[in-house]
Write a structure and sequence with these properties.
This protein is an all-alpha fold. It has a domain at 1-39. It has two helices and no strands. It starts with 6 loop residues before the first helix and ends with a helix.
Length: 83
Amino acid sequence: MSEHVAPLQLIGVTALALATVVWTVVLARVVRHTRRGGTAQGPGRVLAGGSHRFLTGPPQEAVELTPAEQDAFAGLVRRLGGR
């Protein structure tokens, strides 16, 4: 060990090197997995861990607008369209 390097610095460099190696291995696995055509979470897949929620989002809702609301919305779109 060099006399000009503190032990805490050596521990820090070692921890950074270890984190770099771990990050590289994880990144390589992710790239390899995606090249094979797999996806981490595709739409409609069930979440892991026993949860039966789907990843498709909430159901869409539709509301009929009155003619006055349609006119107000059209005016808003015209006002914001010029920006």
